[in-house]
Amino acid sequence: MGQAPSIADLAKQHKEDADYLDQITKRLKETVGQEVTDFHAGTQKFYADQNLDFSIISTGYQMDFKQESDFSLGKITDMINGIAGVLFGHDPNKKMPPGGPSQPSVDSLNAIAPLAGFETLAIQAGISIINSVLALFSTSTSQTYNKSEIRKELAPGLMIHMYSTNQIFKSETAFTNQSIFTTGFSFDIVFSKAQRVLLDDIAFLSSMEAGIKELLDTWRLANTQYAKLSIDFDVSQEKKDAARKAVNDLLLQINEVRKQIHESSTKTINQFLL
User: Fold this and answer.
1) Alpha carbon separation from 140 to 71, 137, 143, 221, 244 (Å, rounded)
2) Between β-strands 55-67 and 180-191, what pairing exists: parallel, antiparallel or unpaired?
3) Is 14 in a helix, a strand, or coil?
4) Structural domain of residue 106, as residue ranges?
């Protein structure tokens, strides 16, 4: 069976779809503009309140549009892998993926170079954080504007601060009358030398273990929402299928983070024993 055309493909083919997509984009930017400004200010306040030095390694904003039959983490996963390739690749000439993340300075890359051993865990943790937000959004029956703010560790001293928004739009004529799911991610990737000193490798891994419980709580909530969604006759089968996939993907991702925490813990313990 052939793959359904994406939002971008349909917008290129049909002027009415393109015009509607422009309207949505403009409306979203107007809605989230001040919220995103407040979010970035909140990142700085997070460190100021704790008297911690900090350096913003990269900042950016990603907006994604999908039809209810087109839920996928592929684009977001590619973006996170691209960012990690720059942060941990020790190559100042390597560029961030297009469409959002700012390029880190050479000094910033040198500062986080010692964290290279946590690269795989940082990637999986980043994906799981975004996955948890999407799982909640995709299982919600609300047609209203949803938002979420998360500030989580990726490696000792390295954090992702993320502000997420989600809204569903539906036109009587555009995009064959399918609902359009819009998701925006504004983020700051920040490193603090003082936080790195305060949080040694073992303490960081213990913190990540505690984070697994939070992710599982999110998965349980998303699964409960999906159970209600699945018996709602007003919800399309496409949305139900996408929601089920989001919930299943989150659980798989949580297990992957668990695996990486275990491997990192083993390496850390072995280093102390040598």
Assistant:
1) 14, 5, 8, 10, 12
2) antiparallel
3) coil
4) 7-273
pLDDT, position 190: 93
DSSP assignment, residue 49? Answer: T
The strands making up 158-169's β-sheet, listed across from edge to edge, are 55-67, 180-191, 158-169, 146-155
49 in a domain, yes or no? yes
- Token pair 């919800």 in the structure block, residue: 235
Helices 119-139, 74-87: axis angle to 10 degrees equals 150
**C-alpha–C-alpha distance, residues 142 and 36, integer Å:** 22
DSSP per position, 205-263: HHHHHHHHHHHHHHHHHHHHHHHHHTT-TTS-HHHHHHHHHHHHHHHHHHHHHHHHHHH
Scan for tokens 């979010």, then name that residue. Answer: 39
Neighbours of 248 (CB within 10 A): 14
**Residue showing tokens 């990540």:** 208
* Confidence (pLDDT) at 204: 85
Q: How many other CB atoms sit within 10 Å of the CB of residue 243?
A: 25
Distance in angstroms (rounded) separating the CA atoms of residues 161 and 188: 5
Question: Which pLDDT belongs to residue 38?
Answer: 93
- Greater confidence (220 vs 103) lies with 220
**What are φ and ψ of residue 100, in 5° steps?**
170, -70
Both tokens assigned to 100: 């959002």
pTM to 2 decimal places: 0.80
Q: Residue 105 domain-assigned? A: yes
| Residue with the larger pLDDT of the pair 163 and 13 | 163
Q: What total of structural domains would you count in the chain? A: 1
Q: Is 1 inside any structural domain?
A: no
Per cent of the chain over pLDDT 70 is 83
Bridge partner residues of 185 (DSSP): 62, 164
- Residue 89: what residue type? G
Residue 2 placed within a domain = no
